[in-house]
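Support request, please re-run this one:
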Amino acid sequence: MVQTLSRTPDLLRQRVLRALDEAGILAVTFLEGMRRSWDVRTWWGEFIEQCWFIARVTALPVILIALPLGSTISLQVGDISRQIGAQSATGAAVITALVRDVAPLAAALLIAGAAGSAITADMGARHIRDELSAMEVMGINPVHRLVTPRLWAASTVAVLLCSLIIMSGVVGGYYFNVVQQGVSPGAYFDGATSLLQFSDFAVTLAKAWIFGFIAAAVACYKGMNCALGPIGVGRAVNQATVVTSILVFAANYVITVLYYVLVPPRF
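Re-run finished. Output below.
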């Protein structure tokens, strides 16, 4: 028992150092992937292919999630607002929540779960087959050739998915708030236009853009550094999804706090 307690600080120190080491390698992978972004000719074809792949595997799930999400928010807020006599404010709550926080987070989590897992598996398969080492032997930097297009593809598609989530969520909320609960369409949209600012949309798209970079960077890093064998690839896929979710929520908190300090919301 005494030996176990004496070893606890050493184990904790090793885990902290390992986490810091992984964070440093992740940052290096991201920066190295961004360093040659200007050389578009070397990764343009892979970028188009990855954009199409990510959009194909995430577009339908985004719609299927955003429609009931907007409807659920509309139902919950509508019941509360009806009790206090402010049912016309439901549209403002639904659209504002979708624009400011829900849309970029949903887009990032879908990219991490659907596209990010596929990217991690692909990079892990290349790693265990020594394709990455073969590229280095041929004088090709695998980060520039494989990571760079995936970073830009995930960030680009995340911005597009963010807009799709907002539109789908607004449609779902409109159906339940206007058609089912009898609120006028003008009241549904008027409250949102009075609360939202252009900077809200700009920050939302910027969030989605940053979250796309985070999802792709974590997926590529975990795949390129996974343990050998199918089990290692499977664990890397699981770890990439979890780490991406943690980093995305942390980044969302920091960005939101800074934005509210610099640009106070309307009331």
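The CA atoms of residues 105 and 248 lie 7 Å apart. DSSP finds eight helices and no strands in the chain.
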